């Protein structure tokens, strides 16, 4: 299973580049970002690999990985549905939109649909408060979302 | 080597100008489309693509499709500007690809002129002939400007020219010192773009006769307006949303292409840097910043010059400067807009800051949640390097400096200085006790200066216009302007930059256009999760560091959420506490354990299970968390609770004693009922109810089984006959 | 005057005090007899400033200030005793308690718990803020150390000691906020982690979040089994520290009382691990001389510390051929009881139950290692209990150790020279080995047998010893973090030494992870306490007639009757082993 996740040549090159720099250990978060971007989560075997290559204790790598919200330790769906629960969105009804998302996807927050298509997550403010409430599917931001918009938005990604 | 720096700069400026000229920047028709996270979210990219297609199809080479960052006028996005040389600049709001087609064919192609009903702010069915924007009430001139403007308005009204002449009051132009008559004011006129200074009521008739009736400029009144933000004013000064603002740090946002260093240079970019390197010692720059009175815009309000001087004077082989772009407050997006709309200003501020503390390396710590800002910053750093503003021997000055981007990974606490340093070092973003302060021992143990995005963006402004001028804007203790991110139940959401000393009332009702849907104002939340909620009686509080503190809130980084009668203050307090509790790093006891207990108590209260003793417990916990926590996150975490307890205690008591939520936000306290007289038995509610707790046959009165109701409100939404009520 | 020696005058609770620049408010207050209540602070570790119990008021400061983390400043006015401070401290301690199990009476640290003492002192008598509590699984997988996250109050002392003192960094904080947990990487069970079992986390933990794996049940069972011959041994350091468990000051030699107690508990035979120490020295000194004179791998590095062995296998697997092949004294004694002694007494080795009372938690792990088992896969050492566990056992039987008569060990595998007693202190093995090696190489009698350069609590010590014209360079390190520094040189091939002694715990075995908890006014790892324990061992040595291991007549007899000569084939079968790379590979 863990063979599926390897340090790709790109990631390896990046680690090597970081190691050549001053204060090389400070690039740990940047390296974890690369792995997260590649696999959608941080596989344990790669964290250990990073620890050995960057000479950072594994427990520290794990400590960093679990500290930051953006790193996840389990694989996620193909599409990440992020609902903003920032202040502006909250006062403009994000909770109802969230309920609608839960109903449409039949999952709870931080879960992945059975078909592996969607993971539902809540995010902190993405800084588009003027357009609240917003839902982000992958990189695309949907603004002024109402509970009724949700099935329409989700449908767009069903076949992608 | 003395003189070379300015000469080198001027050479760069010249070639840069030539490149713009070659691109037709100055003489082509400009179609300007905003492109920032928020603009894109509202569909700006599709609009841009549409224009792109049309420009191509038209075969016209005199049209320049111009991308900018965002202006911050979120509620009207996407915004498209059409600038035809010699014409009044026209800005359209809420543009869709379909509307883009209309704009292009009618306005740009010239078949039918501007599409009037889509123009921002346009309240009549045709364009005004002239727009007069008077200097607004500054802190120095009192209401004299208003008097002149009112008199002018009156005259226009008497002449029956309200439909064709617009009279507006803007923000303080900051030209008071240039005027010799104490009762005089100033005004800017579109589309001629002339600036009349020194006008009194006695001059108004002449303006009407000459300027309006004869279309000739009153030359004797014309003054040259020479401020850093001229170009913003020229682009947007006729839009009400903007002319109540004083755009200093946001002066380029929505004007320049954030990916073009040429445009930044064209509007005075890097001039402050060149001047400083040429003429000022590092100490001289710090002195200027001290005179300007600039205080940190990240929330603390620490005097910037002191921070710089402390880092400069600290012992260390090397020093670092960090730009804190970890904008984490939910509801705040000032930094994002600034970095997406004008990344160069921040970079220029950083280089100057770096020079003043003799640092050779700077870091921008930015949230990974801001991909577009990251992209634009990366591009801007690259361009600055290519043009000699970053790297070895900047502008031939012998000073070398470079900037590296470091990404966060989602942790609010990393906005705290020492946590941020740990995060850059690749560790868990946990704060540590201070002292030693970062200015003594920061990144990797070296003296480190950390400044917020907006603080740094102010630096070139101060140096270009002079610190004394900057100090003339604002209040005694808080100088310059502050950018706020207006959001919540307000008509015009978006970014506003106003002079320190503006009242909350003005920001909410003038800049923000009042409360949405005609609802009643209830409170304004400033400072995000670290701040507090202020009620109506505090609306005349002015925004400066000290006044807001005194009122029980804080300036914070600039988030401003407006709440209406529909919002429950206990629920809002709970929301913020949930946020800080979730973002607590877990290091110190009061914050880790205390916020959890406070949240549990608030959950109890909003579920109707609270006691009066719980309110005392909230205060006791709030006090220990505030006074004993390790870092700013913990020390301010109880603020939303304590400030609402202070200003809205009755609302808490209603929740506790009467088990009611007056705003109807606390679900568990709601009771949905069907009004028998109004129910027609359409079954809509029963069909929508997710737990099937509504019974009743078609055409019979329906009933809700209270024991099973989950208070989701679906029945309320489903009923078309107003037969479902809740209390 | 340099900045460091500059004096600063400040006022604490109305009294003037002058202290050197850089002193913390907490330490300055101590000069006035005010011991500001504290929890996460530990003098041997970096300042965390996390628990906030030690807050004080400083005039002009908006908020309370952690006195452990704040240096004094000229003219500072500090209040440590205001009603607000008292209230805030009490609230903070209560907040900790509210997220802590309410099982004091059945907790192994009842009466020895810093949190319990603090709660009492702060006057927490009611609970105002109770709510959700953490609820995690205990990790009982480790052979040496077990972990109960529910008892953890996140003071981070364990994390700091594991990283800063031991350089193992097995433990780190994971997750954040209310959900923060101290754990090994990937929340691995201890057994699969890089934990060396040194037990320093237990020593510094203010509560019972870390404990040794409880082995007392097996001991009770064996003692009650009439079929078994229970043979006990106990480490040199046990005698120097066990008195503290009964309220005696540190540094009392309790050898005789321990033997009496072991007999009282029901052990059939009581040997002494010091015999094994003498045996180890004879083997190890010969091994060293062989390497030195016949061109073997140098520097040779000692192997008797169990935590150190797991550490080096994980973190420095490329230098394993530097490690002495000798087993530890405990394992040597155990191997001899089940071979030589069993034969001699005609006992079936399978019916021998070897009980070892150790200052060490890692010995539990060592005992279970396959390398330490006989040809049938049975461990030579059946059960290891720590000094602490032994104290509990005695207390449960009402045995009042300080008032027992002294007894002598069974001499066959119990008699020891002074060289063996000093094994328990850092530098002791080196000193003992040098006493013997010198005489092997030179054939002369060593006159001044005290090698003072390798004694004491300095982290890394070195000495040059002239052995018939050859400069032998030796180094001694205690605490795994110090060891790492020396090992880097060995890995690089730049190590200037011939012989290195490594002890896993600070102070050597006397500072082991299984020693009695520090008393009310002493901090774990306290230097004075460690020095007192060490002094007890050096005293024993000084008062003995025989102070060189090879002079031990019972060791000599053992060679004559069973082993032949040092490094013989029989020796290798029972007393030596080989170490190999250990997974998980640590970093």
From TrEMBL, chain A:
Gene3D superfamilies: Glutaredoxin, NADH-quinone oxidoreductase subunit E. Binds 1 [2Fe-2S] cluster. The keyword Hydrolase does not apply. One of its GO terms (molecular function) is oxidoreductase activity. It is an enzyme of class 1 (oxidoreductase). Its EC number is 1.6.5.11. It comes from the Bacteria. Keywords: 2Fe-2S, Iron, Iron-sulfur, Metal-binding, Oxidoreductase. Pfam families: 2Fe-2S_thioredx. Signal peptide: none annotated. This is NADH-quinone oxidoreductase subunit NuoE. Its cofactor is [2Fe-2S] cluster. [2Fe-2S] cluster binds at residues 84, 89, 125, 129. Belongs to the complex I 24 kDa subunit family. The lineage of its organism: Bacteria, Pseudomonadati, Candidatus Auribacterota, Candidatus Auribacteria, Candidatus Auribacterales.
TrEMBL record, chain C:
One of its GO terms (biological process) is ATP synthesis coupled electron transport. Residues 84-123 form the 4Fe-4S His(Cys)3-ligated-type domain. Residues 142-173, 186-215 form the 4Fe-4S ferredoxin-type domain. Its cofactor is [4Fe-4S] cluster. Keywords: 2Fe-2S, 4Fe-4S, Iron, Iron-sulfur, Metal-binding, Oxidoreductase, Repeat. This is Ferredoxin. Pfam families: Fe_hyd_lg_C, Fe_hyd_SSU, Fer2_4, Fer4_7, NADH-G_4Fe-4S_3. The lineage of its organism: Bacteria, Pseudomonadati, Candidatus Auribacterota, Candidatus Auribacteria, Candidatus Auribacterales. GO terms for cellular component: membrane. GO terms for molecular function: 2 iron, 2 sulfur cluster binding; 4 iron, 4 sulfur cluster binding; ferredoxin hydrogenase activity; iron ion binding; NADH dehydrogenase (ubiquinone) activity. Residues 6-84 form the 2Fe-2S ferredoxin-type domain. It comes from Candidatus Auribacter fodinae. It comes from the Bacteria.
């Amino acid at each position: 299973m863990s063979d599926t996740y390897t340090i790709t040549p790109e990631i390896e090159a990046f680690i090597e580049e970081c190691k050549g720099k001053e204060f090389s250990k400070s690039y740990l978060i940047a390296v974890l970002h690369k792995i997260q971007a590649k696999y959608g989560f941080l596989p344990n075997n790669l964290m250990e690999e990073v620890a050995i290559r960057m000479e950072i204790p594994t427990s520290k790598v794990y400590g960093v990985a679990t500290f930051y919200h953006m790193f996840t330790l389990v694989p996620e769906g193909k599409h990440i549905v992020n609902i903003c629960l920032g202040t502006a969105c909250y006062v403009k009804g994000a909770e109802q939109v969230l309920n609608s998302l839960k109903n449409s996807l039949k999952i709870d927050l931080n879960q992945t649909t059975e078909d592996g298509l969607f993971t539902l997550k809540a995010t902190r403010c993405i800084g588009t408060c003027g357009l609240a409430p917003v839902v982000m599917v992958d990189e695309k931001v949907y603004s002024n979302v109402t509970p009724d918009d949700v099935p329409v938005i989700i449908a767009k990604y069903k076949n992608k | 080597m003395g003189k070379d720096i300015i000469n080198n700069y001027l050479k760069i400026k010249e070639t840069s100008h030539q490149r713009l000229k070659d691109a037709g920047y100055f003489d082509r028709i400009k179609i300007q489309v905003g492109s920032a996270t928020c603009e894109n979210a509202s569909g700006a990219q599709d609009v841009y693509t549409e224009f792109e297609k049309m420009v191509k199809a038209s075969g016209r080479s005199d049209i320049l499709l111009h991308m900018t960052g965002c202006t911050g006028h979120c509620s009207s996005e996407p915004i498209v500007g059409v600038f035809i040389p010699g014409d009044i600049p026209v800005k359209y709001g809420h543009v869709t690809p379909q509307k883009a087609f209309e704009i292009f064919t009618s306005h740009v192609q010239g078949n039918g002129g501007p599409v009037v009903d889509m123009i921002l702010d346009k309240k009549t069915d045709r364009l005004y002939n002239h727009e007069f924007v008077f200097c607004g009430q500054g802190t120095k001139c009192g209401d004299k400007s208003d008097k002149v403007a009112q008199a002018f308005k009156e005259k226009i009204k008497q002449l029956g020219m309200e439909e064709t002449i617009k009279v507006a009051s803007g923000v303080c132009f900051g030209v008071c010192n240039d005027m010799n008559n104490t009762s005089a004011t100033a005004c800017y006129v579109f589309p001629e773009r002339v600036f009349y200074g020194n006008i009194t009521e006695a001059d108004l008739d002449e303006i009407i006769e000459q300027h309006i009736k004869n279309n000739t400029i009153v030359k004797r009144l014309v003054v040259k307006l020479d401020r850093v933000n001229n170009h913003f004013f020229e682009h947007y000064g006729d839009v009400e949303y903007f002319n109540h603002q004083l755009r200093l740090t946001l002066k380029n946002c929505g004007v320049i292409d954030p990916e073009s260093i040429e445009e930044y240079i064209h509007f005075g970019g890097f001039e402050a840097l060149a001047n400083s390197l040429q003429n000022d010692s590092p100490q001289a720059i710090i002195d200027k910043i001290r005179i300007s009175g600039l205080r940190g815009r990240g929330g603390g309000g620490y005097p910037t010059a002191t921070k710089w001087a402390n880092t400069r004077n600290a012992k260390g082989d090397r020093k670092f400067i960090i730009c804190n772009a970890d904008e984490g407050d939910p509801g705040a997006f000032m930094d994002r807009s600034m970095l997406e709309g004008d990344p160069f200003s921040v970079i220029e501020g950083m280089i100057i800051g770096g020079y003043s503390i003799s640092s050779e390396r700077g870091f921008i710590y930015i949230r990974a949640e801001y991909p577009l800002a990251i992209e634009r910053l990366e591009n801007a750093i690259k361009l600055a390097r290519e043009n000699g503003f970053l790297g070895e021997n900047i502008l031939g000055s012998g000073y070398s400096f470079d900037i590296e981007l470091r990404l966060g990974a989602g942790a609010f606490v990393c906005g705290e200085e020492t946590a941020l340093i740990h995060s850059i070092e690749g560790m868990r973003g946990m704060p540590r006790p201070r002292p030693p302060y970062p200015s003594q021992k920061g990144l990797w143990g070296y003296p480190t200066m950390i400044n917020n995005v907006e603080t740094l963006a102010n630096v070139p402004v101060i140096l270009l216009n002079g610190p004394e001028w900057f100090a003339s804007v604002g209040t005694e203790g808080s100088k310059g302007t502050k950018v706020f991110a207006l959001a919540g139940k307000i008509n015009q959401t978006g970014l506003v930059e106003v002079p320190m000393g503006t009242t909350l009332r003005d920001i909410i009702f003038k800049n923000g256009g009042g409360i949405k849907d005609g609802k009643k104002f209830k409170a304004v939340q400033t400072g995000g999760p670290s701040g507090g909620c202020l009620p109506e009686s505090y609306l005349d509080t002015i925004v400066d560091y000290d006044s807001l503190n005194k009122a029980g809130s804080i300036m914070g980084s600039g988030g401003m959420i407006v709440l209406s009668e529909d919002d429950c203050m206990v629920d809002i307090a709970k929301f913020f506490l949930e946020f800080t509790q979730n973002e607590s790093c877990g290091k110190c006891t009061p914050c880790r354990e205390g916020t959890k207990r406070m949240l549990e108590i608030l959950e109890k209260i909003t579920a109707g299970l609270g006691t009066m003793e719980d309110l005392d417990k909230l205060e006791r916990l709030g006090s220990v968390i505030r006074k004993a926590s390790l870092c700013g996150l913990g020390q301010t975490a109880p603020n939303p609770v304590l400030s609402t307890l202070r200003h809205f205690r009755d609302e808490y008591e209603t929740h506790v004693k009467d088990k009611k939520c007056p705003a109807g936000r606390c679900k568990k306290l709601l009771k949905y009922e069907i009004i028998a007289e109004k129910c027609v038995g359409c079954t809509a509610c029963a069909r929508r109810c997710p737990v099937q707790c509504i019974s009743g046959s078609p055409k019979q009165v329906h009933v809700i089984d209270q024991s099973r109701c989950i208070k989701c409100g679906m029945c309320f939404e489903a009923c078309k006959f107003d037969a479902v009520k809740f209390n | 005057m340099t900045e460091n020696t500059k004096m600063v005058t400040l006022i604490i609770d109305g009294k003037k005090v002058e202290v050197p620049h850089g002193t913390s408010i907490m330490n300055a207050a101590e000069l006035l007899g005010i011991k500001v209540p504290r929890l996460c602070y530990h003098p041997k570790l970096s300042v965390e400033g996390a628990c906030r119990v030690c807050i004080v008021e400083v005039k002009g400061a908006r908020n309370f200030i952690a006195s452990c983390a704040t240096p004094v400043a000229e003219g500072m006015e500090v209040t440590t005793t205001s009603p607000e401070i008292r209230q805030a401290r009490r609230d903070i301690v209560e907040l900790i308690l509210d997220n802590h199990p309410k099982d004091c009476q059945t907790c192994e640290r009842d009466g020895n718990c810093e949190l319990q003492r603090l709660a009492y002192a702060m006057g927490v008598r009611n609970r105002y803020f109770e709510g959700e509590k953490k609820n995690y699984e205990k990790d009982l997988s480790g052979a040496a150390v077990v972990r109960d996250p529910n008892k953890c109050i996140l003071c981070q002392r364990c994390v700091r000691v594991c990283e800063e003192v031991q350089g193992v960094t097995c433990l780190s904080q994971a997750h954040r906020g209310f959900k923060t947990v101290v754990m090994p990487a990937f929340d691995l069970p201890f057994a699969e982690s890089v934990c060396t079992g040194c037990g320093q986390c237990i020593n510094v933990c203010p509560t019972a979040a870390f404990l040794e794996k409880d082995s007392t049940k097996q001991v009770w069972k064996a003692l009650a089994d009439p079929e078994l011959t229970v043979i006990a041994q106990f480490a040199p350091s046990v005698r120097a520290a066990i008195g503290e468990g009964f309220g005696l000051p540190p540094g009392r030699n309790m050898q005789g009382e321990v033997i009496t107690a072991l007999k009282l508990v029901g052990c059939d035979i009581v040997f002494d691990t010091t015999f094994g120490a003498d045996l180890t020295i004879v083997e190890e000194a010969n091994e060293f001389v062989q390497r030195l004179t016949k061109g073997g791998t140098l520097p040779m590095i000692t192997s008797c510390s169990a935590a150190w062995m797991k550490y080096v296998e994980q973190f420095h697997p490329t230098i394993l051929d530097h490690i002495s092949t000798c087993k530890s004294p405990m394992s040597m004694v155990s191997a001899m009881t089940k071979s030589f002694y069993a034969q001699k007494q005609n006992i079936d080795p399978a019916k021998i139950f070897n009980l070892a009372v150790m200052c060490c938690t890692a010995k539990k792990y060592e005992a279970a290692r396959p390398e330490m088992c006989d040809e049938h896969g049975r461990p030579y050492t059946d059960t290891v209990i720590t000094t602490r566990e032994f104290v509990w056992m005695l207390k449960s039987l009402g045995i009042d150790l300080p008032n027992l008569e002294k007894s002598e060990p069974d001499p066959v595998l119990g008699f020891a020279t002074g060289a063996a007693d000093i094994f328990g202190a850092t530098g002791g093995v080196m000193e003992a080995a040098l006493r013997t090696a010198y005489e092997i190489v030179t054939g002369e009698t060593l006159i001044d047998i005290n090698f003072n350069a390798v004694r004491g609590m300095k982290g890394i010590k070195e000495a040059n010893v002239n052995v018939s014209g050859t400069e032998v360079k030796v180094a001694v390190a205690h605490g795994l973090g110090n060891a790492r520094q020396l090992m880097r040189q060995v890995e690089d091939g730049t190590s200037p030494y011939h012989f290195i002694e490594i002890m896993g715990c600070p102070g050597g075995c006397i500072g082991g992870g299984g020693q009695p908890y520090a008393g009310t006014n002493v901090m774990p790892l306290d230097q004075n306490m460690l020095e007192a324990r060490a002094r007890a061992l050096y005293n024993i040595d000084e008062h003995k007639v025989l102070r060189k291991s090879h002079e031990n007549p019972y060791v000599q007899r053992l060679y004559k009757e069973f082993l032949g000569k040092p490094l013989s084939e029989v020796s290798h079968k029972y007393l030596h082993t080989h170490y190999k790379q250990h997974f998980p590979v640590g970093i």
